[in-house]
Amino acid sequence: MIWFFMLCYHIGLSLSVEVEVSQYPSELIIKPKDKVQIKCSHDKTDFRVMLWYQRSPGDSALKLIGYLNYGTFTPEDKYKDQFNVTGDLSGGGKKTSTLVFKDTGPEQAAVYFCAASKAR
């Protein structure tokens, strides 16, 4: 049986306002074909965009998976068959977004980041 490891981190994006973003779980050890979801949330009512990034082992670049704007997910072409993002960032109160893995395998072993922004 093959196991692989994922780390999940968060980053807050803002020009002048600090945003505390929570991401959970913070780390995962999973098997191929496991159902995986990573959640991200914050309390800034005017930050209605959440972006998701992947950093692969041995690569320092953050690759944009896609972003959720209010309730609409826009994936990068490379990732549209690998991930979905759900959530609704409209309204007041806590904003939550979930990165859903459509399939899991060794190619998804990476560090994942979420970020919050006022605009894309």
TrEMBL record:
Signal recorded as keyword: yes
Q: Name one GO cellular component term.
A: plasma membrane
Q: Which GO terms describe its biological process?
A: cell surface receptor signaling pathway; immune system process
Q: Which UniProt keywords apply?
A: Immunity, Signal
Check the UniProt entry and state the signal peptide residues, or none: 1-16
- Native organism is Xyrichtys novacula
- Note the InterPro entries from the entry: Ig-like_dom, Ig-like_dom_sf, Ig-like_fold, Ig_V-set, TCR_beta_variable
The UniProt record lists the keyword Thylakoid:
no
Q: What is this protein called?
A: Ig-like domain-containing protein
Domain Ig-like positions? 19-120
